[in-house]
Each structure stands twice: as C-alpha cells, then as structure tokens.
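Q: Sequence in, structure out?
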Amino acid sequence: MPAILRVFTISIVLLVACAVSTPIAQAAQTPPQDDAVVRTLEPLMAAEFALQAGRLDEAARWYLQAALAAQDMPLTERATRIALLARDDDSADRLLSLWRRQGGQGVNFLAAEASLALRHGNERQARKYLVQLLDMPGDEGWRQVLGVIVAGARDPAQAATVLETLVRQGRIPGKLQAWLAFGGLAQRLEQPELAERIVAEVVKRFPGEPRVALLRASQLREARKKDQARDVLAGVVEQAGGDSDLRLAIAYEYDALGDLDAAAATLARGPQDEQTYALRASLLARGQDKTALVALYDELRRHADTPDPQRRLLLGQIAEFLDRFDEALGWYQGVPGGPQRWPASLRSANVLYELGRAQEGFAHLHDMQADAGAPDDARRDAYLLEAALHEKARDAVAEKDAFSRGLAAFPDDLEILYARALSWERADDIARAEADLRRILVIDPESVAALNALGYTLADRTDRYQEALELINRARAAQPDNAAIIDSYGWVLYRLGRNEEALGELRQAFALQKDAEIAAHLGEVLWVLGKRDEARKYFEEARQIDPDNRSLQRALEKTVPEKSTP
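A: Exactly. Output:
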C-alpha cells in the first residue's frame, strides 16, 4: 500500500471502530448527517486526493475539516503538517489549537508550535517552544530545533536572529555534537560573527577536543581564509592517531579546501583497509596526482598474490584511471568470484571500449545481459552501461536501442526508465522525457525522484508551471526537508513570477546543501530582483563547485554580461 494512503486507511479504520463501539440504540437515534464517520470520510478522501494531485492548499483545507470532525490526534498532527507545508497559516492556527485541546505534546507538537510562531513573526513565543525542545533529554529535541530554524523561519535573517538569541542565552545543550551542529548552522546561514562566537564557546567548553578544531577550520574555509584553515588542520592531524572517523573528517575538510593530496595523505596515516585504500585512490584520481596514485597502485599490487576479489577490483579501477587499460583488464578478469565479480565484469566492458575494442565490449555486455546465472541488477546494469557507452560514442540510435532492449528484458524497470528520461532531456526531447517519468509514476505513484524530476523539467523547460507546481508539491509532502525538492519548489515559484517567495525557498535550499545548481538558481533570482552584487557572489559559488553546471551556464547567458562573467 502506498505510504501516502496509510494514514488515510488507518484513520478510516479508527473511525469505523468508533462507530462499531457506539450502542445500537444510540446509533439509531443519530441522524445520518451527524454520523462522525460520514462527516469525516468525505473530507478525508478529498484531502488525500488533493494531496496526491499536489494541490496542497486544497488538501490543507480538507484536512482541517476532517480533523475537526474526527477529533483524532494522529489525524490532527498530519493535518497540521500539511497546513504548515502549504503555508496555510489560518488552517495551521486552528489545527494547533485543536491539537492543544487534544493534549498535544512531544517534539513534533513543539516543533509545529515554534514553526508557526516564527511564521507569524513572534520570535519570543517561538523561542519558548524551542527552549523546551532543547531541554529535552537525548538528541531528538535539539535536532528538531535545527530543522525548525532552517525550515520554519521566514528568511535566513530571522533564522540567524533566533539562533543568536539561543546561543547568547546559553540554551544550547552541553553536548559537543550539538554545539558543532549549531556552529555548522551558523556557517550555512552565512553568519560569520555568530559562527566565531560559537567556536569560541566550544573551545572554552571542550578544551583540547580535535573536532572543535575541525569546526574552526570549516569556519575559516567558509570565510575564504583558506591558509588559516590549513594551519588549523595541520595542527590537528597528529591527534588523529588510530581514530578512523577523525581522520575521515579531517580528510573531508582538506577535500573541501581543494587539497586532495593532503586529504589522501591524512587517510594514509593510520591503519588501512579496503575502504581507506579506495578513498585514497578516489582522492588522488580527482586531484590528477598520478605520481601518488602510481605509488599507491604499486603498494597494493605487491600484496595481491592471493585472489582477494575486493583488492583486485580496486587495482583494476586504479589501473583504469591511470590509462593502463591492459593491466586493468587483467585485474578485472582475475576477480575470482563473490559479489565483486559482476562490477568487475561490467568494468571489463568499459576497458575494452577504451582499448578501441568497442565491439568486444558490447559483445561482453550482451553476454552478461543473456546470462541467466547473473543477478538481475548486474544484467540490468549491463544495459545501462551499454547505453552510456553509446552516448559517449554519440550514437543516439544505439543508445536508445540499448534502453529499449533493457526494458524488454526488464519491463517497467524504474532505473532504466529514469536513465532514459534523463537521456531524452539532455537531447531536448522533453515530450519523451515526460512520457518516461510519467510511466514511472504509473508504476510507483510515490516515486519522489520522478515527481521532482518531472516537476522540475516542466518548470525549467516548458511553460506548464501550475502542473509543475503540483508535481513538486507531491514530492514536498513526502520529503519536506529535501534540499533538491526545495530548490525545485523555489524554481517553479520563480517561473510563476513569485520572486520574493522563490528567493526565500532557494535560500533555505542552499542553507541545507551547497550545490552548484541551487547557487545558480539563487543567483538568477537575485539578479532579477536587482540584487546583482549578491547574485554574482552565488554565481561564483556555483562556478567553484561545478564550473560546467548546465543551470549555471544558462543563468549566466540570461543575466551576467560576458565581460563581467565570473
């Protein structure tokens, strides 16, 4: 049963159970129009249908009616969440009042109270609920506060004001993890002074804790003080010792600074396993440090006498990156068995293609596709890789044929359909991309990826903005805190001409995830609103993350003159 209908079904069962428990004589005296089940069922069905259609404003109104009729706390909680998501503050007010009368309590209730108070601009009232959450034992309360500040605030300025007050009043729990999380939030909200204050407080509370230094390094990196960030990291590397998690965190910071060699060197300091070796290889490959990668390759193959499938697969991948395709093929073909056999077999086809033996590679993939002993996911991936190689060869006919044969072998496979939809979109065949995404939604009406992809495609590549909004709203209802979905929502609001609303959503998305596409969208909206210096800042952010991002290139073509392009 689709999850979106579960509460609907449960609520109906509860209502029917209540009706069954009513004395027969009493039921007989009750006029049919007053029956609680009848009065609740119609608006509840209408609410669910509106929600499935992506009409959140309509769903919120029907949910309110159903909750008032049912007097059922789980239904009231769900209705409140939908009203908040739809930004229907009047309905949310009435539902929260009902929830209070029903004895509402706990993290979800307090988070809803705080979110609506922020919506109304009543920061003092919101802080009262946030403090109650922060005072709860365990971690769930303060984690909810993070979510409320990011998603509940009307804009980043209000979020920063609330966070600053909580810090100044000493309300953050005395846990290192909580302080680090709120420090990270201050950075994402682009509040360097507040982040500095949090770092100072953390240093005072947790002296000598290396993870505090990581927060400091992250703060300096966000402030573009990269040399100072490197100095801080250099001072903490020695403390990592045998702490693999700490080494991984330090390597992450070096990676974010663009110091891939330093990240790999950090991982090389402690005990090694296959995951560490793979991460080091990936970092060195991304950094194009072939000298260090050759050294790692030589180190690994000295100990590859035994037929360790994982080691040989990794050696094949490193050799492939080093363009030693003959060696890579040998390593892949030498994987003796186990789950690594199938990815090694797939990589063999790719290596044959790179060796100029494309027909052998395609024949190898065809053999995998026909191998009844191969796992279904390996056979399916053979079709996907074949399509990708044909795309690389710019053979669109053969690419689409691979997809078609894959779907003949695996009817309605969601991954093949999704990959083909993206291929159609890259080729500017929006009608066929839409057809495949809609086919996914027939098979799995709750596919958040397909809902978001189709909604975004319609918003970005057509003028069917209302339809796009409804699809994206369905994705938002399932995953309201997903940065990619919030970005899509902001983008369709922009396309609808609701620029100020779009700006708020895109700022929230970027606070949740530093992504080139989100930054490009944010820059374009800021440019249209006349905030061009800030727009250029986000275009530069996007360029640093991914200079080839398609959304960035389109935004620059529409906004920044060529002479001032970042």
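The chain is about 75% helix and 0% strand.
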